[in-house]
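Q: Structure tokens for this one, please.
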Amino acid sequence: QVQLVESGGGLVQAGGSLRLSCAASGRTFSSVAMAWFRQAPGKEREFVAAITWSGGSTYYADSVKGRFTISRDNAKNTVYLQMNSLKPEDTAVYYCAASKLRVGPKPYQYDYWGQGTQVTVSS
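A: Here is the predicted structure, written as tokens:
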């Protein structure tokens, strides 16, 4: 089983930056891709960004493209989300997820989830 732990959330002003980390651990790690999702109060969980472990291919939601950057450190089994030019609408709990099969934009495509880290962007 894979355990995922997010960190780096916090309170920032609009236009600011924040870097989230997702550390993966476990006896074995066989996931194909990692992703970030977010969920704001009263809203469904939405896709933010994803990256493959092998090739480092990245994917972004249109709402964050150009502002957020996902990256990974394979040796550390850690995925990062650099968030720049933050907007109040980015406020949400951010979740790290791992897929055993493939990259996708839907939560059901992912097999492991972290507990989430709160990101609050003030205006």
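A few notes: The CA atoms of residues 17 and 78 lie 19 Å apart. The radius of gyration is 13 Å.
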